[in-house]
Amino acid sequence: MGKGPFSLRRSFSRRRRPKSTTVPQLPAPGPNGAASSSSPPPPSAGNLIAGGGGGGGGAGAVVAGKGKKKTAGARLWMRFDRMGVSELVEYDKNAIIKRASIPARDLRILGPVFSHSSTILAREKAMVVNLEFIKAIVTAEEVLILDPLQQEVLQFVDQLRQQLPPKSAFRIQGAAAMDVNDSEMHVSTGGRWLPVPEAMEGFQCELPFEFQVLEIALEVVCSFLDKNVAELERDAYPVLDELARNVSTKNLEHVRSLKSNLTRLLARVQKVRDEIEHLLDDNEDMAQLYLTRKWIQNQQSEALLGAAASNSISATPPRLPRLSSTRSASIRSSHNLDDDDVEDLEMLLEAYFMQLDGTRNKILSVREYIDDTEDYVNIQLDNQRNELIQLQLTLTIASFAIAIETLISGWFGMNIPCTLYEMHGIFEIFVGGITLGSVLIFLLILGYARWKKLLGS
Questions:
Q1: Together in a domain, 187 and 324
Q2: Which of 82, 232, 272, 300 has the fewest other C-beta atoms within 10 Å?
Q3: Alpha-carbon separation of residue 238 from 193, 242, 380 (angstroms)
């Protein structure tokens, strides 16, 4: 009986000793209370780096107090919502898939393997945009930009900050709140209640958020490509003119480098142009890109279901048929008709398609100028080659005539007794005769070659 209390104390001391070493000393609770400091952030929200809005102080304190390692596979993203608030965050693959509701294979499109590819994919709740250096995931409420600190992407971020806040000033928070009363169905726009067609008309007065982001991305990419084409034109024409004047190894090397840059730039422009053309050819794909419209319709359907459930419980029996009346059926049919309306997106894509087509035509004109210069240089080289061949033929004819004279001189140079050796003054006459004969043979063969048009005039 005497060992029981002592053993109990030892067990208590054993339990308290590791507990005191593992629990850190918590700071004194501030005005926000101790609950905010003890509750950990959600694991899927990522590690917040910097905030662009007003509510980033508490999250920043959480990051400053944690000395955790970077999550494996996490990448730097910028979150930019429709109200102009931006922040830098680190998300891993699972967090992006959960937040944007996209399949995992879409994240491979944003990887380094497809660095210069151009893809615009429509998903149920998001749009995956991969245009040159811009890699983003756009939803109806926010856009997630991958690697926002790159030099090219910073221009896209600046354009978002400049253009989105003034365009997104209208309020849409209560866009899908429904009010089912005795007269008709209404939608709340935050300030006043409007009928559904009038509310939808108010939302269609400007482009949805996802199309504003897509427009800015296309504008930045097209401006970047136009700038590269302008630099290419500025460098191309002087180099080609110099090559036309002087065909040298240095000038040929400059043209070769210029032509390789032109081919790569043309392929990049062609990829963006083909992607836009693919979207323009398929109305279903364009309709899937209307994320805000689908979001509003989902909110309306949820509100209709909620109103139907509440009315089925609390309303009187005479009011029940009003929920499935011809008015709601006409509203549904009008929404179904609006699903096929892709005029706004079509006009947006056609504008940049024409711009890219003009950029492509500029590159093709430079390539045609390069081809013309190469043809001119080849003509010059062929002309010089023909002149060398003619010179070689002329020298060959002269060598044949001289060889005949040398042959005759060799015959008489032998130590053979001959009566011509004893005649005085015969040497000059003999040498002059065989030389004149050689010249005559040369002129005859040369004339024959000109007659056969083997030599130029």
A1: yes
A2: 232
A3: 65, 6, 19
